[in-house]
Design goal:
The chain is mainly β and 155 residues long. The chain contains one helix and twelve strands, in the order αββββββββββββ. The strands form two sheets. Strands 1, 2, 4, 5, 7, 8, 9, 10, 11 and 12 form a ten-stranded antiparallel beta sheet that branches. The chain has a two-stranded antiparallel ribbon with strand order 3-6. A hairpin with a 2-residue loop joins β4 (40-48) and β5.
Length: 155
């Protein structure tokens, strides 16, 4: 949500307008390397000035398909920082819907304005790799779950 109100000198804001600042709104992220089918994506974000906070819940379905490269979700508002790759937050993924939960790190990619989930593949030599069709394990398409949240500076 961009600033919807006149914040210029002398402007008068109502209590209702002030209460709307930072309200969460839904958005539909563009998916890269995922064909959703009848799966669902629940995504919400709030913006106050340059600060953006987002939450994404991704639920796969039997007709969801994945690429062998990294899952990506578009940002609700373009990233405005100077870093090419920035840590945005964290979350978890459960590719089979009922078994192991894998913690993830959420990275923002400036050049594409995409959100990319990564998980730690090897704890002995901490190596991160993006979540994809067979990583951290093969997705059971009918009930895989991914949840992530984070924040960043808007353009």
């Amino acid at each position: 949500m961009a600033n919807p109100f006149d914040f210029s000198s002398g402007a008068v804001l109502t209590a209702a307008q002030l209460n709307q600042i930072g309200d969460y709104e839904s958005w539909t992220p563009t998916l890269t390397n995922i064909t959703l089918g009848s799966g669902t994506v629940n995504a919400h974000y709030a913006q106050v000035n340059e600060f953006v906070h987002f939450e994404i819940e991704f639920l796969s379905a039997s007709d969801t398909s994945f690429s062998s490269t990294s899952m990506q979700f578009s940002m609700p508002v373009n990233y405005g920082g100077a870093l090419n790759f920035v840590g945005l937050g964290n979350g978890w993924v459960r590719p089979d819907g009922t078994g192991t939960i894998y913690p993830i790190q959420v990275i923002g990619v400036q050049s594409s304005n995409n959100i990319v989930p990564y998980y730690m593949q090897n704890f002995t030599s901490v190596q991160v790799i993006s979540v994809r069709e067979s990583l951290p394990e093969t997705w059971i398409k009918s009930n895989g779950v991914l949840y992530m949240a984070g924040s960043y500076r808007a353009a």
